[in-house]
Prior knowledge:
Chain A is of the alpha/beta class.
Amino acid sequence: MALLEIRDLHVGVEDREIIRGLHLSVHAGEVHAIMGPNGSGKSTLSHVIAGKPGYEITGGQILFRGQNLLQMEPNERAAKGVFLAFQYPVEIPGVTTMNFLRAALNAQRKARDQQEFSTPEFLKRVREVAGSLNIPRDMIKRGVNVGFSGGEKKRNEILQMALFEPSLCVLDEIDSGLDIDALRIVASGINALRSPERAMIVITHYRRLLEHIVPDIVHVMSKGRVMKSGGKELALELEACGYSQFEDAA
Amino acid sequence: MKQVLVKADAGRAMGNVFAAARGRLPGAGPVLQIRARAFEVYERTGLPHRRMEDWKYTDLRALISEVLPLAPRPDAEALVRAKVSVKQVAADQAVKLVLVDGIFAPELSDLGGLGNEVVVRSLREVLENSATGAMAGLVLSTTSDSAISLNAAMATDGLVITVADGHAVERPIQIVHVATGLSVSTFTRCYLQLGKGAHADIVESFVPAERASGYQANDAIIALVGDEASLSYIRVAAAASDAVNISSAIIAVGARAKLDLFSMTCSGSISRYQGFITLAGEGTKLSANGANLIRDKLHADTTIVVDHAMPHCTSGEKFRAVVDDCGRSVFQGRIIVRPAARKTDATLTTRALLLSDKAEVDNKPELEILADDVTCRHGATSGALDDTLVFYLRARGLSEKDAQMLLIKAFLGESIEEITSENLRDFVTAQAEHWLQAGR
């Protein structure tokens, strides 16, 4: 059984249909890349998987481990193991990263009927994970993403991904706003989290990210549908020909 | 020119209450004269009303329909109920001074823990003792504000606290006002004098006992902060949901002194907190912050006037309001920079968070600059919780309620974190969380 199964998904916002009959099947251990031009519905797809309010699901299904994801609240999806790394992580002044991580992690554990981490247990865990990602301690003592550079914000997303240990990671244009060095650091963090139990959907415009995170399957999305799927070489083809052929075909 | 007096029924009825209470109020001779003069100041306008600029959002003449009789002296049963309430608001390691229905209750207070450098007396004792009668003019000092004048005229009891020069009070002093009565009025006044180079942490808590309702409280604190002294003054007010609570503070701060002030109003049908702070010496630093936490149909008004009278003074104000249901929060912040107050640096920000479409906020920052070479800034915002932030937190596993709570706490934290004492900051945070939890 696929970890994530999307069947004939239709999504609209304010009477405008953005996703128009999308099918996608993702198995544990796989890394899927979704590429496509601006406005093709890539970010909408990531938001709908995570449960962001404001979208109208007009048709289709999203099944996660066979369960109807669309009937779950965003926090329930997180507790089930769905993680969205945001393209633009928000700044939350007044909430330290440490407090936020502890509240979120314990909320997920509580929802899964697991014992909440005590403060010493949590501190040990977060220090281990931050250390493995070369994230300095002072970063997690500051307000969530407050004053962080683009690279720091994305590393903070990867830190959360490593700490929460989700089964499905959706990375929404994780490469946007990163210079080459930051891209390399973020990509290596993501690669370290690849595992046979975990699946990833990497949403990006550019092939350069896929040089660092080599996908098993590449999908080209245009006008709310997957127009073509293939191996990692499909990204090379797109680099050469661009997206116009798919936009014309849609 | 003689002023034309226009007073509503409740305002007129106050004259009868004053006449009836005079015989019971502490003090004789000169004290009576001071009270009579204060009542005359009150009578010029009667209850404050909306045509008075400082009271335009809190029209007591319209909001108060009757004047209640003075509270009787608390009986044994009232003291037992008050004791329970004192425990509920106890600040960690603080020395407690308790007033029950406006009357000092030594049996619930802790007078032994302050040492010889700190003198605590009840206001009643000071006013009734002819040897200390000279203080009466000082402790019953008044202004043109009619609520403060009424308080001076009717003050039944309170505290007079003096801290010797150079003495740092080790433990916080917590003044707890407990209301136990039904349909009564109380008039309390506290006077605090901090000597040169002294330091004290003062917490003033207002709390209703179980079954207390429908009361009207008018209290005032007069504080003189000596040169090079430092005072942290925290006020947390909770009142019954059908009570009226008018609180005033008149504070003068000396040269190179430091005042940290924080006021939080959590409930009360009609609450008005007004602070008049004068930076009366050079090089003084003021941090004046606070919050209104309001839900149901309650009304809370915080009005702070900071008067920069001398050069090289700094003031910073951060005020926050969280308003739910049909609540209404008012914040008026006025900064006056007198002609002599060169090199003043003053900042005021007020932000409001509206949790319901029916919640209402009136934010009025004002600058009155009469000097050159000063830096003054102010800003005001109001809005709802940011849905993007709520979603971010929910996508990380927090329920919608928990996400909202975390964001509200962070919003309030912007003001609370200005409290320099960690103990007092924790105390205020706990009180704010108690209010938040009560609304879930």
